[in-house]
Protein 1
Amino acid sequence: MAATAVREMPVLSSKDKNLSKDSKLNCVIAKGTKIEGNIRSSESIRLDGVLIGDVVCDKKVVIGAKGRVEGKIKASDAYIMGAVDGEMVISGTLQLESSARVKGNLSAKKLIVDEGATMDGDFKIGA
């Protein structure tokens, strides 16, 4: 049986100055992948595909520009470039990139919104 190496990958490119350069992720859901069901992870997640279900993540959730979640996201931090249709509960920082499209209620300790991002829902910030 051959051993498989797991290499940690940066969550974002080195161009992103708002998030830690040492951020790593172990789970990548690639473009073209569709998952129907819930995801629970103690590690960071990057989603470039489609998830119809909920995400509970102890660390950071990154939704790529072509990524889409239809369900609740609960995480320590989140960086959204794609679409989310559902509630978000973020205990730390939620960053919405200019391409983000969010529909649903959200709560976060800190919210960063780039010009061009769209949001439709109720917000609770600083809690």
Note: Residues 24-118 form one domain.
Protein 2
Amino acid sequence: MNNQILKLIPIGKANARKTKTLAALLNIPYNANSDRNIRKSIEELKADYPICATSAGYYIPLNAEEATEYFNTQYKHIRTLSNNLRKISANLNKKFNLQLELEI
């Protein structure tokens, strides 16, 4: 199924496709199970292909600008999550006398 999905992931952010659209193009019913399977396949494909995602769906970057934009967005998201987790862990450590550590 991975190769079929790869062929359906468009080039360019403007052409991004959601899992529901991918399911329709694969001629499979869209439900929680098919959504999960498509997402799993895409995660596997990411090891070999530069598949990006936005709220509009999945795509392969058209150019270096789209690739850089995606990378920067993901990096900013990780930094935000990391900062929030540091704050949360410090508060949990204090409140419950824990020793949670963040290693990234």
Note: Helices lie at 2-8, 19-25, 32-45, 64-96.
Protein 3
Amino acid sequence: MKIWHKHLQERFSTFPSHQQIIMVANELNRANHHEHNVVEYKACLERALELLDFTIDDKDKWGGKYRELLRARRYLASIYNQPDTFIETSVLQRCLIQLDVQAWRLTNPQRKDLAPTPSVHPKVTE
């Protein structure tokens, strides 16, 4: 596979988790727009794989969601390895975005009522 982001790897871990996930989802979205152009579709998938690898390398930031990133990576690789076949990536995009609350909020501003919120324990007063 070609290296697409030559100078991004060393600073990728400085990006917040929502930005990392949105960058991967953006490439998957681009792939969906190239249904009839196999070369560009595969290039988008390669870039998404590369960004997902950078995200996975930032293991400490993802904690318990790390295994979900690995699962997404495995699924994306299986899509990439399908010869000359277009496979919709919208479901994978949504799954990745749901891994980070801020990414979900940024990509779904009209659905604030359904936004996942971190659990907050009520303050106990004596």
Note: The chain has a mean pLDDT of 85.
Protein 4
Amino acid sequence: MKNEKLKDPTLKNPLLNNTDRDLALKSLNGWTKSEGRNAIGKEFIFADFKEAFAFMTRVALKAEQMNHHPEWSNVYKTVLVALTTHDRKGVTKLDIELANYMNEIST
């Protein structure tokens, strides 16, 4: 039984409780709790489509490296992002890590 717990990937990436999620959001400029679901979201606005697409490309490479992929949409210079960990049904440290990365590269 003990060895089975070590193999459980969800133990490496636990679901954040509401307090921890809200605390993390305070340090994530522009990110908010998504309405009606356990996710965080942000709207990024760039100078033009080329900058928005470049941002999405960089995030896609990081997301693939992390094996953690955003929900997002793009219309011209705007990128809407929602982050949640689907197999955990809520926000985890992976979502916070990816949100931090997005903020870092968007400035």
Note: Strands lie at 32-33, 40-45, 71-75, 78-83.
